[in-house]
Amino acid sequence: MAKTRKEPGYLKLHQGGILLQRAEAARGLLTDCRLCPHGCGVCRLHGKLGLCRTGARARVASYGPHFGEEAPLVGTHGSGAIFFEGCTLLCVFCQNHDISHIDKRGDDSPRAVTDRELAEIMLKLQEQGCHNINFVTPTHVVPQILAALPRAVERGLRVPLVYNSGGYDSRETLKLLDGIIDIYMPDCKFMTPETAGRYTRAPDYPEIMQRAVREMHRQTGDLVLDDTGLAVRGLLARHLVMPGHLDETDRILAFLAGLSKESYVNIMEQYRPCHRATGYPPINRPVSREEYSGALDLAARHRLRRLELRDWRQLLNRLFSRSEC
Ligand code: SF4
């Protein structure tokens, strides 16, 4: 596995003026929003809201050093997580439904931030020693992130950028991020339209997710770590094992193995029936120990060898972090 220290790609693009061009192109997409595959077609610059319930401004629910992420992101000082409100998937089992499933609050929300404020948040996280800036649920606020970046870079931002999405990203929007995002962290959820349509607002999720993950991998390659084990660039895929859906796990791991045998994958076991999941059997119960170990067996069968392994620190973090639902 290659180990190297590398300057984040966005610095070079900023020097060449490309960062500003990308920010302008992304902002243009908000007038007739086709930013994500839903293609709502609303003018978000004039207060209209689509499925993600987000207008011209990003809304930040919270931010800070996060120690519950994958080891290559957390290091010693944490991953600098910025949690955005709103979402394009609206999963019935969402653990963060209090910030993802929100009604119309748009730009009037006290959580709406300007480009300058978003840049300041990034810089504050870097000053706190965070090893990266981790944009959580960023799909619907790509233009706002791009607009804030030049200001942050001019004021000294130098840490890698992490795009932490549910995988429902349009390839066209991802192309605007080419060379800017250092680490892509998609959550690969489902592989059949029936399952995706039952639990999310996106029955076309499997096709879109696979296309998006291929594009993410094309841009950044397999995950590369530096000498200290921190992620500097590449794809870090997640998959949350769902009760009664090991067949989906099998197909997702096959897809990731087909992408590269060097795919770095976090197979997550912490599913709980949150939000409205109690009304959706079989996901109305936690994942069993047998199901989780079955998922690990499947990873071995697909010869995926770069798996995120839990350690005591992560386990404690999960046990004492915010309530699961
Ligand atoms: S980003 Fe929001 S408004 Fe735009 S297409 Fe997606 S869900 Fe609709």
Quick structural summary:
The protein is α/β, with parallel strands linked by helices and 325 residues long. The protein has a single domain (9-320), classed as Aldolase class I (TIM Barrel).
Structural class: alpha/beta
| Beta-strand content | 5-15%
Name the helicity range: 25-40%
Oligomer: single chain
Number of strands: 10
Net shape: globular
> How many domains, as an integer?
1
Low-confidence stretches: none
Question: What small ligands are held by the chains?
Answer: iron/sulfur cluster
What composes the largest sheet? 10 strands, mixed
The CATH first-level class comes to: Alpha Beta
* Chain-averaged pLDDT: 93
Count of helix runs: 12
CATH architecture: Alpha-Beta Barrel
N-to-C terminal Cα separation, in Å?
Answer: 37 Å
Q: What's the CATH H-level homologous superfamily?
A: Aldolase class I
Protein architecture, described:
The mean pLDDT is 93. The protein is of the alpha/beta class. The protein is built from twelve helices and ten strands. The longest helix has 16 residues, at 205-220. Bound molecules: iron/sulfur cluster (SF4). Residues 33-36, 38-40, 42, 50-52, 88, 140 line the site of iron/sulfur cluster.
